[in-house]
Amino acid sequence: MPAKPSFTYGLPNPAEVAVMNGRQMLQAMIEGKVPAPPIAQTLSFWLAEVGDGTCVFEGETGPHLLNPLGGVHGGWALTLIDSAAGCAGHTLLPALTGYASVETKVNFTRPIKHDTGRVRAEGRVVTRGRQIMSAEARILDADGRILAHGTSTLMVFGDGKTEDRTPAAKSAAHRS
């Protein structure tokens, strides 16, 4: 398993990211050209991969994430799912267009323990409208077992007019 990457944490310079579309901004974060958000440091997860309508985070479990009963708090998994689903949507947005989660629902399928180790949260856009997107994500352990899965509804701020770059749209464009 590769070592946890090293990041600078903070908020990006608004002028620097104003010219980047969502995918470019997230890729710049992976490459260390813009800082990772402070929540990623607090909750020990990081952005690992982005594509058109897809996003992957990785995270490390540990004792700092435990609830009073000794398991990793469910809010950590929910945050990973919300982040992976939301950033999958962000990859499709033009510069100067934002989004926010309006709802995230998660199903926990296996316990996540302090010693589970590195997990992978894979997100993808399911549908893309002008103002609303739906995305899904799942958290996998090192053996590929699903630990949790969920969906997010995202509201797009701005005109929302952008080329649909989801894999399904690309496939449809090639057929026509």
Distance between the termini: 42 Å
The ordered H/E elements are HHHEEHEEEEH
What name is given to the CATH topology?
Thiol Ester Dehydrase, Chain A
CATH superfamily: Hotdog Thioesterase
Tally of individual helices: 5
**Strand line-up across the major sheet:** 1-2-4-5-6-3
**Which blocks of ≥5 consecutive residues have pLDDT under 50?**
none
Rounded to the nearest angstrom, the radius of gyration is: 16 Å
Descriptive notes:
There is one protein chain. The protein has 176 residues and is an alpha+beta fold. It has a single domain, classed as Thiol Ester Dehydrase, Chain A, CATH 3.10.129. It has helices at residues 14-17, 22-30, 38-42, 74-90, 167-175, and strands spanning 45-51, 54-60, 98-108, 118-128, 132-140, 146-157. Strands 1-2-4-5-6-3 form a six-stranded antiparallel sheet. A hairpin with a 2-residue loop joins strand 1 (45-51) and strand 2. The protein is globular.
List the SSEs and their pairings:
Layout lengths: L13 H4 L4 H9 L7 H5 L2 E7 L2 E7 L13 H17 L7 E11 L9 E11 L3 E9 L5 E12 L9 H9 L1
Antiparallel strand pairs: 1-2, 2-4, 3-6, 4-5, 5-6
Describe the structure in brief:
By secondary structure, this protein is α+β, with helices and mostly antiparallel strands. It contains 5 helices and 6 strands.
